[in-house]
């Protein structure tokens, strides 16, 4: 349980001792033969090992997408489960190449924490979950409540801001590990559990003894754009992660998915030709194979497929697309042009 | 042997140091300069390399963040704190919480440890076996597991807040911890504190006077009872003189939780109980070994001189046992204080927990870790200095 501190100390050591001249991340990754990816240790739908020990989830799929873009193999990834507190030291120190761990992009993290955020893979917001038997209908009724929250998150700060803004008091129970936070809430130590709404849905579906006994309150108190992140100082690596995310979104916009992608091989549309690498240039610009986008969509799927497979209506989380629909369908998912 | 011969041959001429590596004095100086130089060089390399790396990744450095608004809440605090306060104040809250659990833990562990240690030496078979079972079980289970056990005992074992146990009117026991009534604020409490201090000073004076008189005349004086009377009696007299206020601030169930009264949170209970019982097992062994180290002949000699068993323990056995007990006891105190960082796992806001949140929100891991290390070092050294001073005081004075 002191692992958070351990990671921080390790990061301090690594940052202290790592040689001044850093090699390009892409070269290091290619030489190593796999992408080292930091993920959530246990958040159903985003980063969670299944019963066979395989990692699943939306964040996990983006690790795999980057691995496919580089190696054309979704299994050339090693996953490092990280707590909220461990994640920044891990990416700062180079312990992981990519942080894909339901991390909210914020100004401080983009600047003084030293991260670069790829495009948002899930637009989320913070909410509250309470036991149904409390009879609470709105977050405005939570004055004086005891709230379980994971430490080292934007959630912890939004919580304080929300109660301050509404002139209410609360009593925080702040625990490092996600599992222990959930355990404390379900044991009844707290009246309220707070985290991103998607996380609440995942916890209710996957952890609650009786999911129907808990309700998620209607208020969404913050903007939580969750995005993969890389560390400062390697623009090429940042570009690769960024455009891999865009590729999954662009594919959905083209109507290309993992099943029908080969039907587009002879497409006359120059946009699609550039995207699939039939007319070359995009891959070279990124330092990747020309078929990188083709491979990514073929092996991991487009954004819609990734969403539906992990968190969509057909999964225990039962989340609607909402803000995460394509811009053409009233959502915010919008890829920059592939040219 | 060859080396030795050469050393002797190369000894400096009387009255000077020769500038030659065969001169042991000169050689020693050279080696020391080399070692110090190497340490400084490595240190300089680490620091400059760190700053360089941080700058290249444009990660913020420095301790300016301590003045910025913390904006996160803390569950329990000994001083006023709100999310509006600075990171610096939040850290202070953490330090005080660590000190609170350490000081109370050290006191309780010492008392429990001493009792168990003496019990292990008891001639009563059952008591001795119970004590040794306690020691063997507790000190062989990792403290983290014990903390989880105590925490689960409260959060899973006790009823929900609305069904709180109410053993005595005003006292509520639930998953939210223990709520007890406290006395309403009144000026007499401050006066009673002063009376208590006066009582302690007076008791000390009486015992000095009694010892001097006994040395002079041989007449014993019950200084212990007189002192106790002064320490307890003076505050009580002050309380009666102040009108004997009895108003209680009773806890009431309001909304989600109890309000009013004082509370002990489940997190504090778990960390305090876990650390106290764990350390007490070690202290028991320290105490037992200390008492065993005093030769039985000492007790027999004291008895032969006609000393009753109380003064025998107090005047003959304990002063000698303490010399054996105090140095390892210091280590146990240090262990307890450092183990308090396990609080992170169960959500007690100690200094590590708060520094961790801070370093996470600011991204300044190196600064956070140095602050944690520095604070523990200061607390540890303070405990060491105090215990070393005490150890010197009770050490055998050789004539």
Automatic annotation (TrEMBL), chain A:
Belongs to the bacterial solute-binding protein 3 family. Coiled coil: none annotated. Residues 34-264 form the Solute-binding protein family 3/N-terminal domain. It comes from the Bacteria. InterPro entries: Bact_solute-bind_prot3 (IPR051455), Solute-binding_3/MltF_N (IPR001638). Gene3D superfamilies: Periplasmic binding protein-like II. It holds the Pfam family SBP_bac_3. GO terms for biological process: amino acid transport. Keywords: Signal, Transport. Residues 1-23 form the signal peptide. This is General L-amino acid-binding protein.
Automatic annotation (TrEMBL), chain B:
GO terms for biological process: amino acid transport. GO terms for cellular component: ATP-binding cassette (ABC) transporter complex. It is a multi-pass membrane protein. PROSITE patterns: ABC_TM1. It is found in: Cell inner membrane; Cell membrane. The chain crosses the membrane at residues 28-47, 101-121, 188-206, 227-248, 268-287, 371-390. Keywords: Amino-acid transport, Cell membrane, Membrane, Transmembrane, Transmembrane helix, Transport. CDD domains: TM_PBP2. SUPFAM superfamilies: MetI-like. The keyword Hydrolase does not apply. Pfam families: BPD_transp_1. GO terms for molecular function: transmembrane transporter activity. Residues 95-387 form the ABC transmembrane type-1 domain. Belongs to the binding-protein-dependent transport system permease family. HisMQ subfamily. PANTHER family: AMINO-ACID ABC TRANSPORTER PERMEASE PROTEIN YHDX-RELATED, MEMBRANE COMPONENT OF AMINO ACID ABC TRANSPORTER. This is Amino acid ABC transporter membrane protein 1, PAAT family.
């Amino acid at each position: 349980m002191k692992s958070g501190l351990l990671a921080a100390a390790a990061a301090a050591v690594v940052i202290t001792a790592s040689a001044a001249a850093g090699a390009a991340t892409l070269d290091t990754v290619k030489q190593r033969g796999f992408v080292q990816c930091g993920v959530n240790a246990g958040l159903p739908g985003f980063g969670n090992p299944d019963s066979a020990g395989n990692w699943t989830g939306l964040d996990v799929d983006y690790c795999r997408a980057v691995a496919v873009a580089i190696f054309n193999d979704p299994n050339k990834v090693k996953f490092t489960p990280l707590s909220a507190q461990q994640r920044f030291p891990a990416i700062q120190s180079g312990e992981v190449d990519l942080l894909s761990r339901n991390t909210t992009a914020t100004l401080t993290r983009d600047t003084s924490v030293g991260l670069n955020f790829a495009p948002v893979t899930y637009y989320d917001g913070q909410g509250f979950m309470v036991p149904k038997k409390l009879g609470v209908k709105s977050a405005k009724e939570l004055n004086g409540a005891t709230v379980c929250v994971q430490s080292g998150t934007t959630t912890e700060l939004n919580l304080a801001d929300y109660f301050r803004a509404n002139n209410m008091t609360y009593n925080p129970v702040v625990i490092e590990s996600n599992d222990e936070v959930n355990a404390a809430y379900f044991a009844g130590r707290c009246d309220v559990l707070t985290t991103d709404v998607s996380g609440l849905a995942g916890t209710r579906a996957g952890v609650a003894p009786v999911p129907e006994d808990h309700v998620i309150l209607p208020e969404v108190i913050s903007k939580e754009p969750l995005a993969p992140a890389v560390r400062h100082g390697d623009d090429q690596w940042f570009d690769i992660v960024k455009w891999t995310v865009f590729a999954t979104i662009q594919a959905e916009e083209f109507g290309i998915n993992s099943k029908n992608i080969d039907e587009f091989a002879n497409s006359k549309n120059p946009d699609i030709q550039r995207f699939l690498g039939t007319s070359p240039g995009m891959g070279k610009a990124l330092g990747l194979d020309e078929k990188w986008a083709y491979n990514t969509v073929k092996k991991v799927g487009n954004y819609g497929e990734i969403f539906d497979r992990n968190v969509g209506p057909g999964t225990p989380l039962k989340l609607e697309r909402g803000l995460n629909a394509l811009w053409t369908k009233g959502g915010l998912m919008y890829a920059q042009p592939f040219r | 042997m060859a080396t030795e011969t050469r050393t002797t041959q190369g000894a400096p001429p009387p009255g000077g140091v020769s500038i030659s590596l065969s001169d042991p004095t000169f050689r020693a100086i050279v080696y020391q300069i080399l070692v110090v130089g190497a340490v400084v060089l490595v240190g300089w390399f680490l620091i400059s390399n760190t700053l360089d790396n941080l700058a290249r990744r444009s990660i913020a450095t420095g301790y300016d963040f301590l003045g910025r608004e913390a904006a996160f809440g803390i569950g329990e605090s000994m001083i006023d704190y709100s999310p509006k306060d600075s990171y610096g104040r939040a850290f202070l809250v953490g330090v005080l919480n660590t000190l609170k659990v350490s000081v109370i833990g050290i006191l309780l562990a010492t008392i429990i440890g001493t009792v168990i240690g003496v019990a292990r030496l008891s001639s009563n078979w059952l008591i001795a076996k119970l004590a040794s079972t306690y020691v063997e079980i507790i000190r062989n289970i990792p403290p983290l597991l014990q903390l989880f056990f105590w925490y689960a005992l409260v959060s899973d074992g006790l009823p929900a807040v609305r069904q709180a146990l109410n053993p005595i009117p005003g006292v509520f026991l639930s998953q939210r911890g223990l709520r007890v009534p406290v006395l309403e604020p009144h000026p007499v409490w401050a006066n009673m504190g002063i009376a208590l201090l006066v009582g302690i000073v007076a008791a000390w004076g009486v015992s000095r006077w009694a010892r001097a008189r006994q040395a002079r005349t041989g007449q014993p004086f019950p200084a212990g009872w007189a002192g106790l009377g002064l320490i307890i009696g003076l505050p009580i007299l002050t309380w009666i003189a102040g009108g004997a206020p009895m108003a209680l601030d009773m806890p009431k169930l309001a909304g989600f939780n109890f309000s009013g009264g004082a509370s002990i949170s489940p997190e504090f209970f778990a960390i305090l109980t876990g650390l106290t019982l764990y350390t007490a097992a070690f202290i028991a062994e320290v105490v037992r070994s200390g008492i065993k180290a005093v030769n039985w002949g000492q007790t027999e000699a004291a008895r032969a001189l006609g000393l009753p068993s109380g003064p025998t323990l107090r005047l003959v056995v304990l002063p000698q046992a303490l010399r054996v007990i105090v140095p390892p006891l210091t280590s146990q105190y240090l262990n307890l204080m450092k183990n308090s960082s396990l609080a992170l796992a169960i959500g007690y806001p100690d200094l590590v927990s708060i520094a961790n949140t801070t370093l996470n929100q600011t991204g300044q891991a190196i600064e956070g870790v140095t602050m944690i290390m520095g604070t523990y070092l200061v607390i540890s050294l303070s405990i060491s200095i105090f215990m070393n001073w005490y150890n010197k005081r009770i050490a055998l004075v050789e004539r």
